[in-house]
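Hi C.,

You asked whether I'd gotten around to modeling the 152-residue construct. I have! Everything is below, sequence then structure, no commentary in between.
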Amino acid sequence: MKKFFSLILFAIFSLSQPALLLAAENSSTDQAKAMVKKAIAYYKTNGKEKTLEAVNDAAGPFNERDLYVVAYDLTGTVVAHGANKKLIGKNIIDLKDSDGVMIMKEQLAAAKGKNAGWVNYKWPHPLTKEMTQKSMYNEIVDDVMFACGVYK
């Protein structure tokens, strides 16, 4: 009986504290960078079309917990997105976060060597939907930029 009540209390706490539990599960910058490297290796083996399909697959190899890969062309158009299919085909070159960070322009610059591929900006967390600080790793291969980020 004691175990039963402990389980009930744990369930109540878990449901009332989702942000605390999710914060403990946030991925690391090493994991985000590794996800981009994994997408690039897949691209080199399987080609652009299959890679973009895999990136778009929510149950695929490039979507884990709060990590997901995004692919862009070099003009700032989203060509694949692991978390928000509505952005595919949209050119976001002029997109700013709430602090005025030119997200896509900074990502392209980072992928070309600035800040070792990393950009910091605010973006909605895919699990909590709250506006959160995000660090995104970006790398270009051929005419595609692959990116993956972590929430802080």
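If it helps when you're writing up: The CA atoms of residues 138 and 147 lie 4 Å apart.

Thanks,
B.
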